[in-house]
Specification:
The chain is of the alpha/beta class. The protein folds into two domains: about 110 residues, Urease, subunit C, domain 1; about 290 residues, Metal-dependent hydrolases (TIM Barrel, Alpha-Beta Barrel). The chain contains twelve helices and 16 strands. Strands 1, 2, 3, 4, 5, 14, 15 and 16 form an eight-stranded mixed beta sheet that branches. An eight-stranded parallel beta sheet has the order 6-7-8-9-10-11-12-13. A hairpin with a 2-residue loop joins strand 2 and strand 3. The longest helix has 15 residues. It is globular, with a radius of gyration of 20 Å. Bound molecules: (4S)-2,6-dioxohexahydropyrimidine-4-carboxylic acid and zinc ion (ZN). The site of zinc ion (ZN) has 5 residues, from loops.
Length: about 400
């Protein structure tokens, strides 16, 4: 049995000074003065449930030069993330039972909890019931992005929504229809309304990926009021950057959907703190430096993000921009609840021992040499953040994030 002592633990919506006992892969007790063979002193630290990132491109396979499961696992631990949902726009794509099963096996190299999306493609949409038992959720691309998996035919969309409903899985949609995905005139809200109507008509459990604008959030909230079964995520890059930053930084900030306005960015922070945003997911989409420096038009869309997820959000907690309770809701409780991870997302007796131990005062500037993701760079380089993970437990096993080595010193 391992006991974490003297920490402030996030339990039942607040921080409490309690010990946590871990037995094998579970939390087996919470209380004062717990006894056990191995004691880890967590004085001055905060313990949260491990973060759950429902939108990650782990790559691997023929794109292992961008990322593979091993490097993704390291980046996730650095960012306080213990569970990921991997997107299926890999090469080759995850659109058959064999590929999904093989990808799951490969995911063990990450040593984190890996859930796997199945792609809905022109090749498999008629037989979703075959692949359904093997996937944790389905992903549908309405338009082109990395991987060429788009399905644009409206008639097929209706069939797909209907069949996914029968599988009882969540359908996550990349809701950018047609045209240039980098078009910033933003028909995001219209495209999202289109899928909301389909989810309403076919009673599909819908999750909308990477929402970037106020109009789109408002459209989703309206649909929720009319009882559409929908959830959505936004991503750290939409909270930290705008289209103006993209003008100066070019391909480094090219992603689909593209960055929005300053008003949208401010709205997202406000909506986050008001509890109107269900989840923060990173859409961690690694592409190498060599791939990004070829000029804006040719560079692939996507930015890495998982590695700094917790620091990016904890810094906002330190700056009183976000409450700790909201952070836990959008990164732990809500993703666990929505995606059916009944043993995760909370610190409680009997739950999985997935934990992140944070030094709330550690301050550090992100540099390129900190990047553990195989892509080798981060859009957050140069940013100084306060509050870093110093210890992470995945299923009771301790993993050291890069900051662990520095636990008694301050680095700048
Ligand atoms: O920017 C993006 N990159 N958006 C996507 O939808 C796909 C992702 C990728 O896989 O690179
Ligand atoms: Zn994505």
């Amino acid at each position: 049995m391992t006991i974490l002592t003297n920490a402030e633990i996030f339990v039942d919506g607040e921080l409490k000074k309690l010990d946590i006992a871990l037995e094998e892969d579970k939390i087996c007790a919470l209380g004062r003065n717990l006894e056990g063979e191995q004691r880890i002193d967590c004085s001055g630290k905060i313990v949260l449930p491990g973060l759950i990132d429902v939108h990650v491109h782990a790559r691997d396979l023929k794109q292992s030069h961008k990322e593979d499961w091993e490097s993704l696992g390291r980046a996730a631990i650095a960012g306080g993330v213990t569970t990921v949902f991997a997107m299926p726009n890999t090469d080759p794509p995850l659109d058959t039972v064999e590929r999904v099963r093989d990808y799951r096996r490969r995911a063990q190299a990450s040593k984190i909890n890996a859930k796997v999306y199945g792609a809905i493609t022109l090749g498999n949409y008629k037989n979703l019931e075959q692949i359904a038992p093997h996937v944790d959720a389905f992903k549908l691309y309405l338009g082109e992005t990395t991987g060429h998996l788009s399905v644009s035919d409206k008639k097929l969309h209706r069939e797909i929504f209907k069949s996914v409903t029968q599988t009882e899985k969540i359908l996550t949609v990349h809701a950018q229809r047609g045209g240039d995905p980098q078009d910033v005139t933003r028909h995001e809200a219209d495209d999202i309304c289109y899928v909301l109507d389909l989810a309403a008509a076919y009673k599909t459990k819908l999750h909308i990926a990477h929402v970037t604008t106020q109009r789109a959030v408002e459209a989703i909230l309206e649909a929720k009021r009319s009882k559409v079964d929908v959830s959505f995520e936004t991503c750290p890059h939409y909270l930290y950057f705008t289209a103006k930053d993209r003008e100066s930084r070019g391909a480094w900030l090219k992603m689909n959907p593209p960055l929005a306005t300053e008003e949208d960015r401010e709205f997202l922070w406000w909506a986050l703190q008001e509890g109107l945003i269900d989840m923060i997911a990173t859409d961690h989409a690694p592409h190498t430096i060599e791939e990004k420096i070829v000029g804006y038009a040719k560079a692939p869309a996507g930015v890495p993000g998982i590695e700094f997820l917790l620091p990016l959000l904890f810094d906002a907690v330190n700056a009183s921009k976000l409450s700790l309770g909201r952070l836990v809701e959008v990164c732990c409780t809500n993703p666990a609840r929505r995606f059916g991870l009944t043993h995760k997302g909370e610190i409680a007796v009997g739950r999985d021992a997935d934990l992140v131990v944070i030094d709330p005062d550690r301050e550090k500037t992100i540099t390129r040499k900190d990047v553990g993701s195989r892509c080798g760079w981060s859009p957050y380089e140069g940013l100084t953040l306060r509050g870093w993970p110093v210890m992470v437990f995945v299923g009771g096993l301790k993993r050291n994030p890069p900051c662990a080595a520095l636990s008694n010193e301050r680095q700048n």
